[in-house]
Amino acid sequence: MKKFRLSNVVLFFILLISLSCSRGGNLKEFNLHDISKNEDCKTIPLDSIVAGTEVIELDNSEDAPIIGAITGLYESDSSFFIVSDKKSIYEYNKKGKYIRQLASQGRGPGEYLSVGGVSVNNDDRSIAVFDFPSQRILKYDKDGNHISSFKPKFEDTLLYLKSFFPYKDGLLFYSSNNSARVDMFLFNQEDEIMEPVSRKDRNMLPEELILGNLFIFGDKQGPYIYNYFNDTVFVVKNKKLIPAWLTRSGNLRIGYDELFMDRLGNLGRSVLNMRNVIQGGNIVFFMYSLSDNIERKRIPFLSLYNIQTNSYTQNVEIRDKKDSLLTIGRRDLMFQGNTIKDIIVIKGLPGSDKNQVIIKFKML
Questions:
Q1: Whole-model pTM?
Q2: Looking at the predicted structure, is the pLDDT value of residue 291 above 90?
Q3: What is 29-65 written as a DSSP string?
Q4: Which pLDDT belongs to residue 15?
Q5: Is 18's pLDDT higher than 90?
Q6: Could you tell me the fold of the domain covering 28-363?
Q7: What percent of the chain has pLDDT above 70?
Q8: Any residues with CB less than 8 A from the CB of 46 and at least 6 apart, and which?
Q9: Residue 24 in this model has a pLDDT that exceeds 80
Q10: What is the pLDDT, as a whole number, of residue 352?
Q11: In this predicted structure, what is the pLDDT of residue 20?
Q12: What are the structural domain ranges in the chain?
């Protein structure tokens, strides 16, 4: 019996070592940020990564709404959907003309309290909206009429979904949790079934502040998944998470023992806060800020990773030779476009406090 147990122990350690080597040794990796290079901003020529641009000026007529803080921008084959202050969804056509407000804020049928995500089915142009507070998935037809509402039920009564990403013919939902592996589910819109893809590996403590966030980006047929508490970027295969590459954040990431109000304000070091991650072609855009807890300030950064060449460039600004409006900077609001080749940016026109434009960049 002792010999059997000893062999099992040896086998366990051999397996553990082999898994560790396969996880780190065969994956591409890079460091997200080098503090010593904070001041070194590199200018990237726009035409070196972008094939073409389109500037769409948004409707500014009396019928058009006053857009507040933009918390989401989604593109379909025929429209743009702008989420304002998480409580209003405005639809514009591809020329920038205002079409309608999709439903309204409230607790009634077809209404939402806080928008956690929007997705458009390009086949029938139906629209799915996730209402974060009520945890309901609302569905509307192409004319904005409410069709149905669905609230998933889980055995874990403390599980709370945060948002989703369009994945093939379904929606890939993820939970809000400080965990290296969060709860993820694939929602089949036709059958209204939630299938598990990943399960969290730890429960949050009651005193913890929620800092964990998941970023899903790229192609709807095969998106990438990045988590603040995990250096690994994953892909989904056969409804399982498979490691794709490593993004090292080192001691810039907050540890689990620091997720408390009394400790966060006294870390005495810089902390990396990821704001968004999107993909255009082979380029992944990392938008993040570096918090300096000593000087009480946040410095925004934009960095690029080329998936094909495995090259990473920290702290960049992308400039056009002629038109400054086409500059992509570290403070710009950037979103995933309708295809893997597209990224979209929304900003105000120079010298105007009213007119806003959507700029669509077609990547090489």
A1: 0.90
A2: no
A3: EEES--GGGTT-PEEEEGGGTEEEEEEEEPP-STTS-
A4: 39
A5: no
A6: Neuraminidase (2.120.10)
A7: 91
A8: 53, 318, 319, 320, 321, 326, 328
A9: no
A10: 66
A11: 43
A12: 28-363
Q: What is the mean pLDDT of the chain?
A: 90
Q: Could you tell me if 327 and 302 are in contact, meaning their C-beta atoms sit under 8 angstroms apart?
A: no
197 exposure class (CB count in 10 Å sphere: 0-12, 13-18, 19+) = buried
Residue pair 214/116 in contact (Cβ under 8 Å)? The answer is no
Element (H, E) at 170: strand 170-175
CA of 136: how far to CAs of 105, 108, 284, in Å?
A: 13, 12, 31
- Residue 152, Cβ neighbours under 10 Å: how many? 15
pLDDT at position 293 is 67
Sheet holding 70-75, edge to edge: 70-75, 79-84, 88-93, 98-101
Looking at per-residue pLDDT, the higher value among 11 and 200 belongs to 200
- Asked if 137 contacts 130 with a C-beta cutoff of 8 angstroms, the reply is yes
Bridge partners, 79 (sequence order): 93
By the 8 A CB rule, do 229 and 178 touch? yes
- Residue 32 near residue 289, CB atoms below 8 Å: no
Q: What share of the chain is helix, strand, coil (3-state, %, to 5)?
A: 10, 45, 40
Decide if pLDDT at 180 tops 80: yes
Separation in Å, CA 308 to CA 39, 215, 280:
27, 20, 12
What are the two backbone dihedrals, phi and then psi, of residue 338, each rounded to the nearest 5 degrees?
A: -75, -25
Query: What residues does 222 pair with on adjacent strands?
Result: none
